Amino acid sequence: MPTVKYEPAKKAIKTILPGSKSISNRLLMISAIGNFMPSFKNLNKCTDVKTLFNALHSNTNVLDAGESGTALRFLTAYMSGIVGEWHIKGSERLHQRPIKPLVDALKSMGAEIVYDKTMGYAPLTITGTKMKGESVTINISDSSQYASAIILIAPMLEKGLKLRLEGEKRSLPYIDLTINLMEHFGVKVIRMNNEIAIFQGQEYKPCNYKVEADWSAAAYWYQLAALTKDCQIKLLGLNPKSFQGDKALQFIYKKLGVETHQSAQHTTLSRKTESNNSPLTVDLSQTPDLFPSVFLTCVGLQRPLTISGISNLRIKESNRIDACAAIATSMGAETTINEDTICIENYPNPLPKKLIVDVRNDHRIAMAAAILSIVIPEVIINNPDVVEKSYPEFWEEMAKAGISII
After folding, report:
1. Using only C-alpha atoms, what is the Rg of the chain?
2. 229 is in which domain, residue-wise?
3. Beta 209-210 vs 40-41: how paired, if at all?
4. Could you list the active site residues?
5. Are 258 and 218 in contact, with CB atoms under 8 Å apart?
6. 69 and 185: one domain?
7. Strand pairing of 62-64 and 161-166?
8. What is the predicted pLDDT for the residue at 275?
9. Count: domains in the chain
10. Is there a single domain that holds both residue 256 and residue 370?
């Protein structure tokens, strides 16, 4: 299996981050619903974005969402309002990721959706029809994308939309990001706490848009900065005022010794020299994609931790809680897992010289594990190409920092 090796870079590191995956996928939906050709710059070139683009521009009624949970949810909502019969399928893992809360909400709006195999899961058959909308409730405990999928299609609804959010309120910044993009393209959205209203008769208006850099991709550079003793990393394209929730990186990693310096041209990361081994306590309920990098940073530093807000990580591309806990155990940590929390109180063993990681076909596990090569001489991962799902430039850019596959 491929081995990840690290040799410290001899100069300051500068990298251009990819465009935000979350923004890119929402822009594709807005252009499809608005029926205009995209005029967007810096779209993320990852598999997730390509999958959604290909499905939206397919000449068949069988749409393959592949490994993409975003594509599954967004397509389910969109195709429910397009007249015709549509079949939506995906990978084996995607068929294990729940979609019932979204389907229930769409059915209450008039959608006709049938589960082909297992109740609550894809594959689905949809008979597209003109949906009325009006008052809808949706439980977003599993994913905020359920809400984003519905509010994105609001201009397709005859009577507008009044959406009430129920359940645990996780990943709310992604809903705010969706609303911000909708308003940029001419659709007024009113949000008051758990209520979202979009009046009927609105439509998306075409305009140019440049996608800002992906704060989720920046996580691995913050992880790199935290695990190195002396470094200076310049990240290009990040927006400090972004609606992306993962900009919380700069505050979380300050507790892990990384300082963020923002200028008009770039974001610079630098490592503080003093060590701090106090337990890290952080709630990631609003920024769940940061879990693998934050958790494995602490393990690499042998830093005690308590991370909460993680229960829905069990239904991501992998069970990320189990995947990361398995890595921590291999690195000598004693891990305690509860429903919504993971803790490490001590590290009775030194870091190993060799680490074999099953990335479980999960891009974020692969990338976070690769950075551990800074503190473990030999890191072996079984599927380095899985990074294509969100960050296809990962290995090329990490080579600038001395992290490479051999």
Report:
1. 21
2. 3-18+212-405
3. parallel
4. 289
5. no
6. yes
7. unpaired
8. 61
9. 2
10. yes
- Mean pLDDT for all residues in the chain: 96
Tokens encoding 3: 């081995």
pLDDT in tens, 4-56: 999 998 788 999 999 999 999 999 999 999 999 888 999 999 999 999 999 99
Kindly report, residue by residue over 329-366, the tens digit of the pLDDT. Answer: 999 999 999 999 999 999 999 999 999 999 999 999 99
Q: Based on the domain organization, do 183 and 217 belong to the same domain? A: no
Looking at the fold, whether 236 and 259 belong to one and the same domain comes out as: yes
**Tokens coding 55:** 């499905």
- State mean pLDDT over 384-396: 98
β-pair type (40-41, 232-236) = unpaired
What contacts 249, CB < 8 A, 6 or more positions away?
Answer: 215, 218, 219, 222, 260, 290
User: Buried b / exposed e across 89-110, counting CB within 10 Å, b at 16+?
Assistant: bbbebbbebbbebbbbbbeebb
Contacts of 98 (CB under 8 A, 6+ apart): 120, 121, 142, 315
Residue at 97: amino acid letter: R
Q: What Å distances lie between residue 215 and 18, 235, 241, 249, 313, CA to CA?
A: 9, 10, 11, 8, 19
